[in-house]
Amino acid sequence: MSTTPLTAQRIKRAQEIASAGGMKEAITACAIPLRADMTVSEAMVIGLLLQEVRKFIGIFGHGSTEIGEVLRIYEAAGLLKTYPVRHETEAVHAATALRWVTGEKAAVITSIGPGALHALAGSLTPLSNGLGVWFLLGD
Question: Do the beta carbons of residue 14 and residue 80 sit within 8 Å?
């Protein structure tokens, strides 16, 4: 299977991060350059990895396919895990429960449309309980 240069760069970067043992370790060991050309989607995933967010829950579609592609590559490298759900409010409640019960951090992803508003409505649950959940809304 041939890959585009962008995909090849992402795969290489993800493998380097995984080989170093994680994002912070890769930076400390200079396994990856401190400056790199990349898409905003990949930069967001790297930023979340730096904040120890390794679980991504949501629905991929219009407005989130690019970040879904980055997550696919980074998941294949063993750096994170994605969980598909059928409703955006369900994604928020799952991320909230994960943080509440285990302390693990999670990000919620939505596509463009009313799902972003559903996730926003669901965000009141972690907010009212003082729990951190990250949101990447397609809108």
Answer: no
